[in-house]
């Protein structure tokens, strides 16, 4: 299926990591940023790294929102609401938005291991309120670290996919399955993103305590391979 996957915040570690993995798998990627030059530079670096006919370009955030079939939100949670309000009139009906964000905060001088309270219940549910009617939302990839994505090795992580829209869930699951080692799992309704997001804080703490950067989640006993 031909589609354009845009990544808001695509110049950051998480966004560029997802872009790298999906471009390697043959997806057409558009890196989004407030700074078009920075987006184009990131796209050029990824094309050079992948080689061949990698389809990656850079654009401003408004272009990503208005011209891509799937848009992945990877900006820090603190900037999500302002960005979504700016883009509210840019979306096309039928666009699928994948929210990867987690409302984390750091203690003074420490790592981001503390969950922020979100009135709506989760970062994903806040995003849902800020998107216009006709745009579908799915929460996924919150537990997959940027450092793992930036490498070439398969990841060792299940991807919980939560949405009230089954088609959006299917699209996010297809993209998850294109990352070697990742296994998409049906996480149920969007409200379950509250649980999934909190797992990220737990994983950050585990990485710190065990001095690793690769802790992921796996669910056992399931009759599926991926």
Structural write-up:
It is built from 8 helices and 10 strands. The chain is of the alpha/beta class. The chain has a single domain, classed as Rossmann fold, CATH 3.40.50.720. Helix 7 links the parallel strand 9 and strand 10. It is globular.
List keywords for this structure.
single chain, 226 residues, alpha/beta, Rossmann fold, six-stranded parallel sheet, two-stranded antiparallel sheet, 8 helices, 10 strands, globular
Quick structural overview:
The chain has 226 residues and is an alpha/beta fold.
Topology readout:
Elements: E1 4-8, H1 13-24, E2 28-33, H2 36-50, E3 56-60, H3 61-67, E4 70-73, H4 77-87, E5 96-99, E6 104-106, E7 112-115, H5 123-130, E8 136-139, H6 146-149, E9 157-161, H7 166-177, E10 182-186, H8 193-210
Parallel strand pairs: 1-2, 1-4, 2-3, 4-5, 5-8, 9-10
Antiparallel strand pairs: 6-7
Helix pairs in contact: 4-5
CATH class: Alpha Beta
- Which shape, going by the Cα principal axes? globular
Q: How much of the polypeptide forms β-strand, as a percent range?
A: 15-25%
Number of domains: 1
Q: Give the N-to-C terminal Cα separation.
A: 19 Å
Q: Largest sheet at a glance?
A: 6 strands, parallel
Radius of gyration: 16 Å
Strand order of the largest sheet: 3-2-1-4-5-8
Low-confidence stretches: none
- How many beta strands in the DSSP annotation? 10
- Class computed from helices, strands and strand pairing: alpha/beta
- Which sequence of SSEs, written as H and E, runs from N to C? EHEHEHEHEEEHEHEHEH
With helices defined by DSSP (H or I, 4 residues minimum), what is the helix count? 8
State the CATH superfamily name. Answer: NAD(P)-binding Rossmann-like Domain
Question: In the CATH scheme, what's the topology name?
Answer: Rossmann fold
